[in-house]
Amino acid sequence: MRAEIVILPGDGIGPEVTAAAVAVLRAVARRFGHALNFAEHDIGGIAIDRHGDPLPPATLDACNRADAVLLGAVGGPKWSDPNARVRPEQGLLALRRALGLYANLRPVQPHPATLGAAPIKPHLLSGVDLLVVRELTGGIYFGDKTRTADSASDLCSYSVAEIERVVRRACRLAQGRRCHVTSVDKANVLETSRLWRDVATRIARDEFPDILLEHQLVDSMAMHLLSRPRAYDVVVTENMFGDILTDEASMLAGSMGLLPSASLGDGKAGLYEPIHGSAPDIAGRGIANPYGAILSAALLLRHSLGLVDEAACVEQAVDSALEAGVLSADLAAGGDAVGTHGVAAAVVERIETPSHVAELRD
């Protein structure tokens, strides 16, 4: 296969973790005989500094033409003034909307080797395997905003069509898993949530009779996600609730640095990124955890390039590295930590081991 992949390193540790992910993708290309071409472009704070725009036209044009996009992180103290006219996060939001990426997939599957890094009791984490599907281009983040000297407002709105498409995506994904979907809303208070619940109920009932759908209020979901995470399979929710709940869910895995994400639309192209931020306090020190970026690359292989075996190879290589104790500083709990380059090298070594691939295909 030949594919064009745009790399958006961004800010902070973004360049470090995307470099690790690209090293892994290059190893996959060598092992399986693919031609993967990479082109770097600016986004976020670095793009503001260089171009005065968090999403320069050249970056957007390249992303529109690419088969997939891999992002590091955006933002940092230099650009953190919330009253600034131009901010790094605007570039990311604009890119999601421009590419029509309405569904953000965030899998959470704690690894036995990292349970000690999680603040949750290990017996609650064994067997956890959930997928959060977050609506990505609607809701309060994209609504009209007003500000006066005495007040401010942010409009939260959703259309039936916006809800239908993300609920359908969640139900299709659940059909390949355990056929259980939990729809999260705040229907006891918000009109948008009442619409969300009505639409989700209709879609599941009329189009996915094999799916067990349950509804959960977001405040109780925040509690249950930590107290009984094994109870959930696919969780679908609106933009802001999904943003908050997925950061909470990262604690199930032991570190935000472990978790990948895929932002998808109706086409094959997608945007892939670890869920962590730019972590400017550790940028340039070579200690950032690249596992989330590497696993995001696996999602890229699966969802945008259709390379299922290759994606599984990366995921198994990550599992093997973690099992062998290749732990970054955020996971080592005071023990021996491996740097960013060392983690990437360990994953690459496992991908390039013929016995690993042969075992995968047996």
From TrEMBL:
InterPro entries: IsoCit/isopropylmalate_DH_CS, IsoPropMal-DH-like_dom, Isopropylmalate_DH. It catalyses: (2R,3S)-3-isopropylmalate + NAD(+) = 4-methyl-2-oxopentanoate + CO2 + NADH. Pfam families: Iso_dh. Substrate binds at residues 96, 106, 134, 219. It comes from the Bacteria. Mg(2+) binds at residues 219, 243, 247. It is found in: Cytoplasm. Residues 4-347 form the Isopropylmalate dehydrogenase-like domain. Its main location: cytoplasm. Keywords: Amino-acid biosynthesis, Branched-chain amino acid biosynthesis, Cytoplasm, Leucine biosynthesis, Magnesium, Manganese, Metal-binding, NAD, Oxidoreductase. Its cofactor is Mn(2+); Mg(2+). Its EC number is 1.1.1.85. Pathway: Amino-acid biosynthesis; L-leucine biosynthesis; L-leucine from 3-methyl-2-oxobutanoate: step 3/4. Gene3D superfamilies: Isopropylmalate Dehydrogenase. Catalyzes the oxidation of 3-carboxy-2-hydroxy-4-methylpentanoate (3-isopropylmalate) to 3-carboxy-4-methyl-2-oxopentanoate. The product decarboxylates to 4-methyl-2 oxopentanoate. PANTHER family: 3-ISOPROPYLMALATE DEHYDROGENASE. This is 3-isopropylmalate dehydrogenase. It comes from Luteimonas endophytica.
